[in-house]
Amino acid sequence: MRVALYTLGCKLNQAETESLANNFRQAGFQLVSPCDGADIYIANTCTVTHIADRKSRHWLRLARRRNPQALIIATGCYAQRTPQELASLADLVVENKEKEHLLEIIRSLLKPTPPHTHTMLPVTAGRNSLHHCKPRLHQGETLHPIAGNVRTRSLIKIQDGCHSPCTYCIVPKVRPREYSLPASQIIDEVKQKVTLGYKEVVLTGTKVGSYRDANTNLKDLVQRILHNTGIERLRLSSLQPSEISPEFLALWQDERLCRHFHLALQSGSQTVLQRMKRSYSLEQYRRTIELIKERIPEVAITTDIMVGFPGESDEEFEQSYSFCQQAGFANIHVFPFSPRPEAAATKMPEQIKDKVKEERNRRMLELSQNSQRRFCEQFSGQTMPVLWEKETNPGSGIYSGLTSNYIRVYVRSEKSLRNVITPVTLVEFRNRAMLAELPGQLSTTSTNTENES
Asked: Within its chain, how far is the Cα of 376 from the centroid?
């Protein structure tokens, strides 16, 4: 039976989808691209912005058109926030806390049980009924796990839930229960990923820095992973300034820890940060990035910036722009404020007009591109190890990968580089990435990276 998975949103969603994919693969389902056609479509949705909502709805409609008889399932944060909105597009709407049980839920639909027994399932039924797709679920079908799967980087969920009072955010509404997974379970999962051939693991969660398991905090967890596993690279997802200390940064003496920190800023204006109810001051953020750069050479610091928050004046925007200009970020994820139901900022006065948001978004994106170029170009001529992920197009001989400090790199190679770490010399910045040469190559790599995301 063919299953197509779609993920929208944060690394935590990506980690949960990866876990689902592993469960389905081990159970004998065939994982396929949505374009190849599937018997079951699963959308792991996001609801952080109205655009994320729209993309989720679009994908569900597209899945229905590709196979009208397929079982369509919506889960994730949009499904958690307003399941009724997705009930007309999906056959099942599964809330976040039941996401990990999707395999059991689908298996229950394969059983020849009376319709009334399904009323106990922790899901919302959509469209006609839970059973309209049953003719496509062939119980005698021989199933095989997907073959030739190249494993490079794995996202591992270590924590979930958020209670922070940020006025623009509805994550606490859709992931309200804060909890951390047992350290022993996480270490076992990292070991399993190493056995499966993964070279890099990314620890992710809603608030990674708040990880707590008995007497183990994030620093202790990272130490235990480095000490007890053979993972070649370990990367952390987003952290908060208050979670960074000299003792924590001392762990980066181990070169397996990737020299990349994502610290969501949201605004470079102190007054806007206060209205957002962020948990740090602009000065605290500034001191944190200075500390990181002082302790870890060649480190990349990336961030998120919101433009057009309610009441953001021209002066406040210029303050934010100036702060980002001076911070020397390796990259900036820019996005306009999106009013979310139940978020306090949605009801604030002085909502910013779309035209103003668009102009501020354009300027910040331009700054982001310039910041990325400046960061990458300082490494021109240097030799750095790269974990190669894939060939950009089959037969092209052009491979794409990442450095420890999150620089996208392309190189030409006659032999496959998939899932290996090799040193290359960074040569030229082009199309938001660095072109490189392998040892012994005589000329600059000529690549076409327009189609690479």
From this structure: 22
